[in-house]
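[Automated response] Your request has been received and processed.

Submitted sequence:
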Amino acid sequence: MLRFCSHLGAIGLVGVASVALSGCIIAHDTGTTSGGTAPPPGEQSVQIDPGGALTTDPGSGVAILVEHESGTRWNVQTTCDTVKSGAPCSFEIFTRSPGITLATTSQLEPNDFVDQGQDNLHAVLQTSTGIDAFSFDAAVGQSVELEVYLDGESAARYVFWVGRGVTHAGIATNPALFVPK
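Generated structure:
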């Protein structure tokens, strides 16, 4: 299925819980950050802030929200533009990090799943008007590689996270390495 999603619509739906710190600035991240594990050649490295929480209006925009709570816990949430498009979103998400462990899942449909592998998780999520989510643990300070697909195509432009106090929209490479700071 060919999907025409509004990237700007998804950006408009994302807000930062720590508004006072970020000033509600949204940036398109295309650079790299220093520190942490170096990404493979050609892979973007981005900084993610502990405690940078994101919110969205389910069903109104396509988004893959990546959060690093603090310590070891990370969250990934998906939303879709089903209210506008009338169609659900089929996400496939890979997360990789030494020792990564699935912690919880939330609002998964009967055919959704998150598989635990050695040093990786593989999620297949059919999202419509709700928020599908999973949480995982990775060693404190350990980077996490994220690779995302929407309806079989790269979904890099739909990834949102908070880094350096700013909400970022879109990763330049798929996969990308998220470095906690």
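Summary generated for your ticket: Residues 7-180 form a domain with the Immunoglobulin-like fold (CATH 2.60.40). The CA atoms of residues 60 and 84 lie 7 Å apart.
If you did not submit this request, please reply to this message.
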